[in-house]
Design goal:
two-stranded antiparallel ribbon, 2 domains, globular, transmembrane, 75% helix, cell membrane, ABC3_permease_C, two-stranded antiparallel sheet, membrane, transmembrane helix
């Protein structure tokens, strides 16, 4: 086993001499993930402080009126917003680490060939990931602090945010950094475990197993429990439920994460008879690894879930406890959450497209040697992204409608103008995702130009 100082020097040198596409995209993802994590956590902390100042623990009781409960209502909605955006943020940070592992696979195989042990390879991977993650943490934290004053233009409950009100307390940032570091290192090591590198430098990828029907059974059970819970809860009790409601929503989102690969695998199998070489290749790649296909479009799915949830939301008071200002603030929160989600969609798509290029580099080169034109690879990349995106966008939208229907029975309010806005948002997001796939074409051409011989 090599010394730690040697492993550290190798990790830094490998990062410095690695493919700039991989390094820059992974660094961008960690930076954006850290920035958005700090922003979301800071916003939740802001609502907590406002609720703590306005509503002391001694004031909570049966006689508390709706106006006194409003700070707790806003805090509850902040937790619910976290439930919408935290899973895509976690996915983005994980994808950045996996992309780094994919980019360094061949270099690690060479180190294995010259005598390094499997433990040495793992240590180098961890150290290189730590080096990259620390850079992203510094940039992301600085960006969140620099952007904090811009939030002073936003107001909730007719009260503008303070200049630095969106910042976390001093202990919040180290806690956030620890979470991001653990997530990055775990994802990198887990991604490396899927690639078996023998002492002869031969790397072989683990074939993913097919997803099973039990995922849908668990999802159906949790969905039924969710529907019964909210249809039996009164609106005031629902909002006052606080963290309990948010925890249950996290459980529902977990069930979506569980069933989504099964939905993709099942629906895409129905598209196999569709003619066309690009469709043939794309559908088989999706069916072969539906979990990876889901990770590519997870951010868009949760944005669609939010769309489905708010498309029926009334813009006028539906209860004496909630005035017009409250619903205006809800719309403001939806717009902010959608903006965060859309940014996650774009960065995640760029990252996953680059990851796909590396994961399928050998197959792409083999097809190119057989005479397959580069335009086919571009069409396959589009279909491999857009087919799962559209399937999960529609599914998540319908599930969001079901959630709203269960929570606000008989209070739906939909207008043609709102439908036009949401359709336009979907169209813009889809076009943006389609355009992002073109951004990795230079990377694909670069890999196609390489003449690589496998170690066999």
């Amino acid at each position: 086993m090599i010394a730690t100082s040697t492993a550290t020097a190798l990790a830094v040198d490998l990062h410095r001499t690695s493919n700039k596409w991989v390094s820059n995209l992974a660094l961008l993802a960690i930076t954006v993930g850290t920035w958005l994590s700090a922003t979301v956590a800071g916003g939740t902390w802001m609502f907590y402080e406002r609720a703590d100042k306005t509503l002391g623990l001694d004031d909570v009781g049966p006689g508390l009126d709706a106006e006194g409960l409003m700070p707790q209502v806003y805090l509850t909605l902040a937790f619910i917003a976290c439930a919408f955006v935290i899973p895509p943020i976690i996915g983005l940070i994980s994808q950045s680490a996996v992309l780094g592992a994919a980019g360094r696979e061949r270099r690690l195989a060479i180190l294995r060939l010259i005598g390094l042990s499997s433990a040495d390879i793992t240590r180098i991977t961890v150290l290189e990931t730590l080096y990259q993650t620390v850079l992203g943490l510094v940039l992301g934290t600085a960006l969140s602090v620099a952007a904090a004053p811009a939030w002073s233009f936003v107001s909730f409950n007719d009260d503008r945010l303070g200049t630095w009100e969106m910042l976390l307390p001093w202990w919040g940032y180290p806690l956030l950094w620890v979470v991001v570091v653990i997530l990055s290192v775990y994802s990198a090591v887990n991604g490396l475990m899927r690639v078996a590198i023998s002492p002869l430098g031969v790397s072989r990828r683990e074939i993913p197993a097919s997803v099973k029907w039990w995922r849908f059974a668990v999802f159906a059970g949790l969905g039924a429990a969710f529907y019964v819970y909210f249809t039996r809860q009164g609106l005031n009790d629902l909002v006052a439920g606080g963290v309990g409601v948010t925890g249950f929503m996290f459980l529902v989102f977990f069930s979506i994460h569980l069933v989504a690969p099964w939905i993709l695998q099942t629906v895409v199998r129905l598209l196999r008879p569709v003619p066309g070489r690009a469709v043939f290749i794309a559908t088989r790649r999706i069916v072969a690894d539906p979990k990876q296909a889901w990770r590519r479009v997870m951010a868009m799915a949760f944005v669609s879930l939010l769309f489905g949830y708010v498309v029926l939301m009334p813009l006028t008071p539906v209860n004496d406890s909630f005035d017009a200002q409250f619903f205006a603030d809800v719309i403001t929160g939806v717009v902010i959450t959608f903006g965060i989600g859309l940014l996650l969609v774009l960065v995640s798509t760029l990252l996953t497209q680059a990851s796909v290029v590396y994961e399928e580099a050998e197959l792409t080169r083999a097809l190119a040697h057989m005479g397959v034109p580069p335009s086919l690879h571009r069409r396959v990349a589009w279909l491999q992204t857009l087919i799962p995106l559209l399937i999960m966008a529609v599914s998540a939208f319908l599930f969001g409608v079901l959630i709203f229907t269960a929570m606000f029975i008989g209070e739906a309010d939909v207008t043609p103008q709102r439908i036009e806005v949401f359709v336009g948002g979907y169209a813009a997001a889809t076009l943006a995702v389609a355009g992002i796939t073109l951004a990795v074409d230079p990377l694909r051409r670069e890999l196609l130009g390489l003449r690589v011989r496998r170690n066999d």
